[in-house]
């Protein structure tokens, strides 16, 4: 089975503050369903209050991430599923719950990891 990343950037969530509690409840319900289905690996969001650091091969630490890359933020769910079709179905359920489109990617399998 492959592991799939279902994610969205923070800017994709254009939900009124008055609906955020409902969105959170709906998203948590879908995550609970993934756990009950035995496909859950992990889920969460990037803590945008904690600034990233860039660590070089020699251990030098620089504040901020890659200067040329867009910021990495938003929410992430990793599921282990038997097919891309099932991953798309779960992504659709998360999109409905979160009220925003979800990006779906498959992790490349590395037998050494």
Automatic annotation (TrEMBL):
This is YCII-related domain-containing protein. Gene3D superfamilies: Dimeric alpha+beta barrel (3.30.70.1060). It comes from Undibacterium pigrum. It comes from the Bacteria.
């Amino acid at each position: 089975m492959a592991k799939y990343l279902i994610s969205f950037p923070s800017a994709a969530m254009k939900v009124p503050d008055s609906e955020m509690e409902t969105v959170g409840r709906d998203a948590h319900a879908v995550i609970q369903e993934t756990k009950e289905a035995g496909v859950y690996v992990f889920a969460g969001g990037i803590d945008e209050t904690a600034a990233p650091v860039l660590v070089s091969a020699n251990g030098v630490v620089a504040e901020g991430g890659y200067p040329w890359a867009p910021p990495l933020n938003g929410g992430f769910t990793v599921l282990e599923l038997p097919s891309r079709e099932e991953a798309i179905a779960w992504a659709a359920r998360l999109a409905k719950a979160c009220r925003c489109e979800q990006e779906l990617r498959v992790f490349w399998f590395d037998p050494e990891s």
